[in-house]
Amino acid sequence: MLTIRSLVVLGLLWATADASPQSRKKGGNGRAKTAQQQAALIPQGVSKATDGSMILDTTWPRHPLQDLRSRRRLHPESGVPGGAAAAGTPGTMGLNVLLHANPPRSAGDGGQSFFDFPNQAVQKNLMGVAVLAPNKNLFWGGGSGLQRTDGVAHAQAVADLVTKVLPGVAAFNASDVSFTGVSGGSLLLSGFFVPAHAAQFQGASGGVLLNCGGLAPQVDVAAADAAAIAKTRIHFQSTQQELSSLQPAIPQAIAAYEKLASGAGAAADQIGVLQTVDNSPNGGHCEFDEKDFVSGVQLMADSFSAIMQGGNGQVAGKNVLNPVVGNEKLSFKAGNRRSMAAALRV
């Protein structure tokens, strides 16, 4: 029986000797440590979640698509509740898999929403999972800005993690899997993961929450994936003072996903229920509470059930469930004119 309710997987933490000027901390050789190397210094293991359940922090030992080594500090088969005993055992709880923001120094990030684990508390029978990006900069999709040069490989890695790795770590209901993106995590989900893997997860009853980021599909979308997208719950959440580079990208993503659903035979009223959008908060990038990056992301995590699981759509007293149909052209303020490259310090 599953005893780990909130599960954090330090996934894809691949070892590398490369250094990056992105970090101000120095290693023993005097070179700056990469964001990934800094993350490796944070202890893994078992801890307690905010709701009193357990967190397992561990590393995927090796990505099957790439000949790369990684560190794994805690072996699930070592007797940790929910480890080997749960392997291959269907569970009753679903998953909410979170892909963190990229590491903008201005937001105090460095995989910030991975380590904060905002979705750690169980909501309506979904346990939280947070996954760390698989490169030295902790940058989902690699590349820089809106150009995600490793997006295809990273999307495949996320799919493999859910379908091949997690079943050997914890018992869960594979038919109830949702995904949450934050900034760069949203870019990977919308640009690469959903377009290429929607059909693979079409049996799942969950959806995709895209926070402060969105890309139109960057890969070809097969007919089966388009058909699955037409049945998938998707919410786009942004703010009035979004990054200037994202202000056109998010509406383009909204229009593209609406078109995919329509092309797959979904009627406008069906699309309006499944695909929703909001950018009413008068805050900057990911500041959904109109105050701060971290607390804003936490607000959205706390509101997941209200938005994605049939709730009333209320976030901080506002209904965010606006149908994308008729709301494709979002209006933004010019308050945040930083480019994404500058904001993410890449």
Automatic annotation (TrEMBL):
Keywords, in A-Z order: Signal
Signal peptide: 1-19
Stated name of the protein: Uncharacterized protein
Taxonomy, superkingdom: Eukaryota
Organism field: Apiospora hydei
Location of region: Disordered: 20-44
